Structure formats: structure tokens, C-alpha cells
Amino acid sequence: MGAQMLREVASKTNDTAGDGTTTATVLAQSIVREGLKAVAAGMN
């Protein structure tokens, strides 16, 4: 699921902007990581 989401983020970024897939992937990874930390800490 995570890898599929990152591929979709990169693909949509490429379709829209024509570049920036690496940046979009790094940002998406960071957002997911921070979200998982929040869930593990008990946030809902």
C-alpha cells in the first residue's frame, strides 16, 4: 500500500508539473512517517 501510494504521488506530480518526482516522493515519505509516529503515540 505504501509503495503504491508513493508511485501514485510521483506519477501525478510528473503528470502535473513534468518534474519533481523525487521531491514529491521524499515529502510523501516524510508525511507518512510522521503520521505513523502520531498514531503510535495515541493520536487519532
Please characterize this protein's 3D structure.
The structure is a single chain. It contains two helices and no strands. It has one domain (2-40). It has helices at residues 2-17, 21-40. The longest helix has 20 residues, at 21-40. The radius of gyration is 12 Å and the shape is elongated. The chain has 44 residues and is mainly α.
Task: Summarize this structure as a short list of keywords or feature phrases.
44 residues; mainly alpha
User: How many structural domains in the coordinates?
Assistant: 1
Helix-residue proportion: over 70%
Helical run tally: 2
Label the overall shape.
elongated
**Distance between the terminal alpha carbons, to the nearest Å?**
20 Å
In round numbers, the mean pLDDT is 88
> Biggest sheet, in brief?
none
Low-confidence stretches: none
Structural class of the helix and strand makeup? mainly alpha
Strand content: under 5%
Order of helices and strands: HH
Radius of gyration: 12 Å
Number of strands: 0
Describe the structure concisely for a colleague.
By secondary structure, the chain is an all-alpha fold.
List the helices and strands and how they pair.
Elements: H1 2-17, H2 21-40
